[in-house]
Amino acid sequence: MLLPERLKTHLSQNHIPYSPILHARVHSARWRPHSCMFSGKEVAKTVAVCPGKRVLLGVLLASSQINLEKLSSIVGEKVVLMGEQECNETFPDCEAGAIPPFGELYGVPVYMEKALAEDSEIVLGAGTLSESALLPNVSEEYLL
Question: How many independent structural domains does the chain possess?
């Protein structure tokens, strides 16, 4: 499986340069830094969560764990992790566990950890368990 077409189109249309990174298939974002040969603070993971019946994406360092209590207080509603089947339905062009952090592609808001703003480039999940993308750093408008 390659980068989802909607992701490639989005990056192209918005003139966002990226470099695809092929790596060993990883089933946990915690192992992506090792397989990509980047430090843990340069690699992000995306977590799909549900506050009530809504969906949102949390983006954080690959080595971190999402703080559901903090995110719940920010969004004003209890947040729970989205189940795998719900992820497959909401993000049909992505492999489970490899959702890219571009919520606008799926009509969902994105919340990002502040620590992600520290590097000029960041490695993001790109829709597959064996491919990531190196991009210029994220916009600060999304940071928590």
Answer: 1
Q: Is 76 left (phi over 0), alpha (psi -120 to 50) or beta?
A: left
Type of residue found at 34: H
H or E stretch covering 75: helix 68-75
Provide, rounded to the nearest whole percent, the portion of the chain with pLDDT above 70.
82
pLDDT digits (tens, 9 = 90+) for 20-79: 887 777 665 554 444 455 555 578 889 999 998 899 999 988 888 899 999 999 999 999
Q: How far is CA 45 from CA 13, 18, 25, 48, in A?
A: 23, 17, 15, 10
**Domain span including residue 53:** 5-142
CA distance from start to end of the chain:
32
State the CATH number of the domain containing residue 22. Answer: 3.90.960.10
